[in-house]
Specification:
The complex is a heterodimer of chains A (about 350) and B (about 950). Chain A is of the alpha+beta class and about 350 residues long. Chain A folds into 2 domains: about 5-110; about 120-355, 2-Layer Sandwich (BirA Bifunctional Protein, domain 2). Helix content of chain A is about 40%, strand content about 20%. Chain A contains 11 helices and 11 strands. Chain A has a 7-stranded mixed beta sheet, sandwiched between helices. A two-stranded antiparallel sheet of chain A has the order 1-2. In chain A, strand 8 and strand 9 (about 270-280) form a beta hairpin. In chain A, helix 2 packs antiparallel against helix 4 and helix 5 (about 120-135) packs across helix 10. Chain A is rod-shaped, with a radius of gyration of 43 Å. With about 950 residues, chain B is an alpha+beta fold. Chain B has 22 helices and 39 strands. In chain B, strands 27-30-31-35-34-33-32 form a 7-stranded mixed beta sheet, sandwiched between helices. Chain B folds into 5 domains: about 45-150, Nucleic acid-binding proteins (OB fold (Dihydrolipoamide Acetyltransferase, E2P), Beta Barrel), CATH 2.40.50.140; about 245-445, Phenylalanyl-tRNA Synthetase, Chain B, domain 3; about 480-580, Phenylalanyl-tRNA Synthetase, Chain B, domain 1 (2-Layer Sandwich), CATH 3.30.56.10; about 595-745 and about 765-850, Bira Bifunctional Protein, Domain 2 (BirA Bifunctional Protein, domain 2, 2-Layer Sandwich), CATH 3.30.930; about 865-950, 2-Layer Sandwich (Alpha-Beta Plaits), CATH 3.30.70.380. Chain B is elongated and about 130 Å long. The chains are: A alpha+beta (about 350), B alpha+beta (about 950).
Chain lengths: ~350, ~950
Amino acid sequence: MEHPAVEIDMGRNVDVGRIVQEAQSAIAAVSDLDALARLRNSLLGKGSALGMARSSLGKMAEDARRSLGAAIEGARKEIEQSVDQQRKVIEEKARILRIEADRLDLTEWTEAVASQRGHLQLVQRTRDELEDVFVGMGFDVVEGPEVETDWYNFEALNIPPAHPARGMWDTFYLRLGDPETVLLRTHTSPTQIHVMESGELPIYAVMPGRCYRRDTPDSRHLPAFHQIEGLVVDEGISFANLAGTIEDFTGAYFGSGMHSRLRPSYFPFTEPSAEFEVTCAICRGEGCRTCSHTGWIELGGCGMVHPAVFEAVGIDTERWSGFAFGFGIDRCAQMRYQIPDMRVLQENDYRWMRQI
Amino acid sequence: MKAPLSWLRDFAPFESDVSLLADTLSDLGLVVEGIDRIRDGLDGVLVARVLDISPIPGAEKVRSITVDAGRGEERIVCGAWNFSVGDHVALAPVGTVLPVGMEIAARKIRGVESRGMLCSAYELGLSEDREGLLVLGNQDTVIPGTSLSEAIGIQQDTVFDLALEGNRPDALSIFGVARDLAARMGIALYDRWLDGSGWGGWFDGEGSSAGGNGSARGADVAGHDIYAEDILPGGTPTGSSVAHVVVDSIDLCPRFTASVFSAVSVKESPAWLARRLTLAGMRPINNIVDASNYVMLELGQPTHPYDLDLLADHTIRVRASRSGEKMVTLDGVERVLGARSTGPGDDLRDCVICDGDDIPIGIAGIMGGASTEISASTRNVLLEAAYFQPMAISRTSKRLALRSEASVRFERGCDPYAIGRAVRRFYDILLKTYEDPSGDGMASSYGKGPDDEAPVGIAERPVMYLGSLDTRGDLPRTAPISVSVSRLNGLLGIDLATRAIMDRLERIGFRCTQLPAGVVLDAGSGGVAGAMVGSGEAGDSGIQDSSGDIIEVTPPSYRPDVLREADVAEEVARHIGYSSIVPRRPRSPKVGRLTGYHRRRRLLREVVAGMGAFEAWCPTIVDPESHLAIGLRGMDVTVENPLNAEESVLRRSLLPGLLRSAAYNIERREDAVRLFEIGRIFPYPDTDRVNKALARSIAQVLDEREMCGVLFAWPEDGVREALQLLSEISDTFGLQRFDIFQQGYADGLPIHEEGPSEVYSLAGLNPSRSGLVVASSEMPVQSDAVGECSPTSLDRAGALQPGTAIGVVGEVDPDVVAHFHAGGISAIHPDGRRIGWLQLDLGLLLDAAPAKGEPAKPISRYPSTDIDLCFTVPREIAAAKISRLLRTAAGDILEYVKLIDVYQFGDGRDRSLTFRIRLSSLDHTLTDTEIAEVRSRCLDILERESGVTLRG
């Protein structure tokens, strides 16, 4: 802004431009807020050059007064602005100093001894994920007892007493009732019977839970383990539907590019029966040591519900057909996290659980 | 089962594409678990003729042998003495690597250079015989210089290791595997193996099963002299009889045949036989036993040879065991028969084979005894070939915990009509063990039996077949099955023509007849052909084809597993290949969902984990001592057959398992441990309940309770942390606060004993710092929709009553902490740490939570006011009582009453409790008057009801 030199009375020139210039350099030199306040007063107060010029206005001619007045007002605003600016500069410097004084080395943080957030058990989490996949496919989730009678665990599943197929399950029997009548369930299949006995059809249900077999613990077996059972009973259900369900599940849980295949097998409670295998997660089907170079990993068993099972629970086989499948939850977790030894699952070791 | 490819090829011309064969086998359900490629291991080993044997001066144990192995004379130093000039022996030239891993190098022994080694059968991996060299038959037909493997008929081979399912007795044989495989691959079996053209019906008849005990017949075989008359069971031996058979328990043994062979000589089997047994996983023993085992492996029919002369009275008696009867089996173990029930329906009858003195000499179908074993001196053999009742064999095998190759086959069900074929095959193989190698490429016996008999030609009839007895009861027959083509297609989700279905089935020996149109099945059929009905009705059931929808399928006698339509469907599916069935997802008509219980349980786990607790999985089967250690009274449910005594009862509390896990971690220097588990406990049931469950009038044997146990073992933890979590949980589930019922405070609530005492047991807890969590009277009573309740309450219904104990909260008894070594490292915690504990019954807790949520309470727009009151309260009065009184006094402008400060006076009796009473109104700012009124009401009611006054 140009500041014209204004001639005022008393024969003295008031160089507004120079006043502003000097004021601004004085302001820029101030570094604390109190001094700035004092300087502002001395620049704009009565005794200041501008103040004196203002007080002389009354004696001036109209024209000169107007032009000088405007110049003075302009200069005042300019100085005020500079003061404000400088205040901000000073404040910013002070703020930076304050913050700097509060500096913390983020790597000198001392971690709390205790983990503030807990961790969910791997098998339980795997189970939740499996449940969610099946819920998405239109299945309900149902649970059943862990202690069962021979009827639920075997007979109703078309495994009569002394049937050689009982050798497929090493059973823990309980000292209740007559010998070998009450037991820890060896699979989740008895829950199928409970569900079918309840009488509501159609059935689309998965049944997760803990099972027991009299296996000496080793890297692949624990006497207690978890299975998830699936059961569909509806009109017109076929083996092709079973294959479709297994295939859809495989893609949804293990990821796209993962497939399933069925191989003939034997279970007393299904006919036809099959074993289902999924693409080996390690080599994605290329063949590796884990899958014995087949590209496939056996996951579980399945089949069409045996007519004898339907008869045991009073479901009309002329109208209804169905399929069932089951597989190990722990085994899914083992595959997914490549756990070499299952026993770690029951050790509850913090060092291990923390990773999961 | 191990199936050598060379053996399979005896039955059909299988190609050598091993991976194709393996894939096809697996796809048939004969799952290939391993493929062993067997080299003959005899690369470079040659037949050598001994030309000269001369001593080496100064050497007593070795001699210098000159041999001809087709490469001129070679000199070998050898320490064996069992051969002479002119013998044919095995030479491993320099550079050969023997199966035992030895590499042959040129050596100088006693100054004589030896270029190679003459080998024993053991060194060649052919048998266990280490005594002397393998000496081939002394025949000029063996040409020196030929490879040894060629000379003794051993080839490279591939062995499939098959995992066979329990429903496929037919596949427990090389023949059965070949039959299935050939059918699937469209390859015809060699004619001689087809039923009825050589191997069927020696004395099997036409599958008839007429007659019971006493209907035995002798049988003749053309070309063999029958020396003895056949003896009827139960009859008296005549002067000319050679053996006598009595079957007392024809129900356990519906068919028993005994065949007598005389003038046998017992010796080592020829190499080809020994090798096949070895490849199939059995140990060669002698030619008689090996021939029996060979037949079992090949045809699936176990047989048992007895030394006839060791049988008292030359008699075999088949009967049920007597209770407590004992016998020593071949493995040297004394077995007690009929001693222990294997389950319902077990009549404790083990089928035994006895001699004429009625002494058990074998456990039928499972294992023989040593007394009548074939030995070097055996001259006459009685061969047992029988069909035992599969269930009886299964029970006995289970009872004695004794399984054998034979029992596995019998319990699955052998072909009762293929016994004659097996006996004939046995004779055939037995004769072959005496054949000389010039015959058809078979090797001679290279063994040196105790008799050192020279091999004999077949013309000399080394064995005489004397005759057989055949006793039959009711033999199972495979019944015709009516199969609806449309239903079979529907079950599999395919569309296969009737002819194609029949074709698949016929290839594996099923007989199929297509019934005329108009035949439909009875409802629920699968076994029996239905009645004829009018064509209109047939049309209604969707059957239009004039040639009829129904085929009558009769399974062969070797497929006892095929009983109904679904079984036939599986056979069709197996033989078209499961992979040829196109997957189609069914459309669930339902919206899938978790029950409310499941959703709330997931939320609970998040809340507990949010407190820093790690989720654990502790064993359900525990040491009974662990219950004693926490002082839990009552009975344990005991496991009848635990893996070990330390894990023999079902847990009734989650506390011991979590304490043990905490100790495990603390020992490993994890100082701050909080663990939780959601799992079931198993209270001991009353007899009535068990009986009801067994009678199926209730669905569940035990009142299993799903519990959530949380263990607080950070260094400063205690009951307060447990209480804090309890408070978070009740907030999360929209429940009113629980009441705590604690010993020592007179104004406790009445407790309803809901469920088993385990739920409200303070066992293992410090009684002065623990209490029951009790549903307060303000608890909303839940009556939930079907399927929303806990899955563990199949037989339990009803809502949570006020005063019901739903769990416990407290601190673990210091002695218990010490017992489990969960007290931590002494340097940090010289007195051991406090451990907080919360255990809640999820069935009660989560079923009580409102499914749809309580209506949310509006919040006030006006400022709230606090009144803080500080009282001097004697020890006997629970703080809860004060806050309950304050709540009553405050009325409807109360937001909350909270205990905000506790100060214990030095005398240890009274303490000062400061309560904050926050007041607000939904429609106005509270006036000083209102506030003053509340304050004075509070003071009045406290003084009146509890004698407590403001702290002076």
